[in-house]
Design goal:
The protein has about 180 residues and is of the alpha+beta class. It folds into 2 domains: about 100 residues, Sandwich (Immunoglobulin-like), CATH 2.60.40; about 70 residues. Helix content is about 35%, strand content about 25%. It is built from 3 helices and 7 strands. The strands form 2 sheets. A 4-stranded antiparallel β-sheet has the order 4-3-6-7. Strands 1-2-5 form a 3-stranded antiparallel β-sheet, with no helix packed on it. A hairpin with a 3-residue loop joins strand 3 and strand 4. The protein is elongated, with a radius of gyration of 20 Å.
Length: about 180
């Protein structure tokens, strides 16, 4: 495996109960022999799980496959910063690490707020303010993702929490109006 280049991609599944990770590695053998591929996933609020990883495939993980819930009881996976380490034998040489911010639950909440804006029957000034508020929230969400992608975990968490609080406020107010018009 002299020209082995490991890489993984976290791909959107648009579902809060699934995590999709694709193998984007380059192997010298197809399929590699005696590689024992595994992925280590550090799940926010749950800890680290080690599970087999299928090479050259798109791997889908759920709360059941990650050992977070029982068979038949698939639960939404938590949002937050995830750390991944994909290894093939020998693991001390051949591995790749990535971190990313999972925002599936927050995105679902944002989508609800966005749909609320589309069906509001507020006046134009309030509607304009609501659009500004949603753009600001989206900016915080994207900032959280960017921070996590660059290993700035504390900043990612702060931005995520800020966006979540702003969404709660938006959803709990009449027409999403804060009273400030721009």
């Amino acid at each position: 495996m002299a020209d082995l280049r490991l890489d993984i991609l976290v791909l959107p599944t648009y579902n809060s109960t699934t995590l999709g990770i694709a193998d984007a590695s380059t192997y010298t053998e197809d399929p590699p022999t005696e590689s024992s591929p595994t992925i280590e996933i550090n799940i926010p609020s749950f800890g680290i799980v080690f599970i087999p990883f299928n090479m050259n495939e798109f791997n889908i993980f759920t709360s059941v496959t990650l050992g977070l819930s029982e068979i038949g009881d698939i639960q939404p996976l938590p949002d937050g910063v995830y750390y991944l380490k994909y290894t093939v034998a020998p693991a001390y040489i051949n591995y790749v690490e990535k971190s990313f911010m999972r925002i599936e639950k927050l995105q679902e909440k944002f989508d609800t707020a966005f749909m609320k804006l589309d069906i509001m029957e507020c006046d134009q000034l309030i509607k304009k303010q609501s659009k500004v508020d949603l753009n600001t929230i989206y900016f915080f969400i994207q900032g959280a993702v960017a921070a996590a992608n660059n290993c700035a975990t504390d900043q990612a968490t702060k931005l995520y929490i800020k966006a979540d609080k702003m969404l709660d406020n938006f959803l709990n107010t009449n027409c999403g109006c804060s009273g400030n018009n721009y």
